[in-house]
Design brief:
Strand content: 25-35%
Structural class: alpha+beta
Oligomer: single chain
Number of strands: 5
Helix content: 25-40%
Order of helices and strands: HHEEEEE
Length: 149
């Protein structure tokens, strides 16, 4: 049996070790890159949720002030979170709430009416913006159609 073939493969272990090290390094870099990307996505999602909750706070302020339809000024509620009435582009000049007047509801006769309002509020947090729209009905109010004897 001849062993002279093994003498030519002495450096092959080093080459294989370096290739394995290269593959493991690339896997490690890929894992770190993916982790950073996922962390950024998670942060953006958090800022979007904060903006949504800021807009929801604006909705509650608007509902509390009904029947007044005055605009809700840009209001700070956190480190970098704000809300105002209107859309995302209205933060410099908030829009008034909308009143749609009287309307009827099923289950009530014509002598009763309800007032309908629409509240649009936007929220912003660290550059992320969200808008929420709500329609609210108040009443019943006398519609002025009762007959007096």
């Amino acid at each position: 049996m001849s062993h002279h073939g093994l003498k030519n493969e002495k450096g092959m272990v080093w080459v294989l070790a370096l290739l394995m090290l290269l593959v493991l390094t690339l896997l490690g870099i890929s894992s770190v890159s993916t982790s950073i990307f996922e962390t950024n996505i998670s942060g953006n999602d958090r800022f979007g949720a904060d903006a949504f909750y800021a807009a929801e706070a604006g909705i509650h302020v608007g509902l509390d002030q009904i029947p007044s339809t005055d605009p809700i000024a840009r209001t700070r509620i956190g480190e970098e979170s704000y809300f105002w009435s209107g859309g995302p582009n209205d933060k410099g000049s908030p829009k008034a709430l909308q009143s749609f007047g009287l309307h009827q509801k099923s289950g009530y006769d014509a002598s009763w009416a309800f007032k309908r309002y629409q509240v649009n509020a936007s929220g912003e947090s660290f550059g992320a913006a969200r808008e929420v729209e709500v329609q609210a009905s108040m009443g019943p109010f006398s519609a002025g159609t009762e007959y007096n004897n």
